[in-house]
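Z., the sequence and structure:
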Amino acid sequence: MRLRVEFTTEPFDLDEAPAHAVVARQVVETAGLDAVDVGPFGNTAEGGADAVLSAVDAVLRRTLDSGATRISLQLNVIGEGAE
């Protein structure tokens, strides 16, 4: 199964990326996911189910540990089959 995750961590800081946002970027960029798009107000990544679910777990745990007070997340199935 192929999944797409979209997530945002808060609180926002428009002047400098907060530690939780930096951690989130590191997690998705090193998770072996496809089509990673990291932006100032949200992040998107796609990949096989195992890779995406592992990345989601790491994003949740590591961003909370780094000061996130809210994480908004949406997960969609975008295709079937092994990835």
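The mean pLDDT is 93. Strands lie at 2-10, 34-38, 43-48, 70-79.

Let me know what you think.
H.
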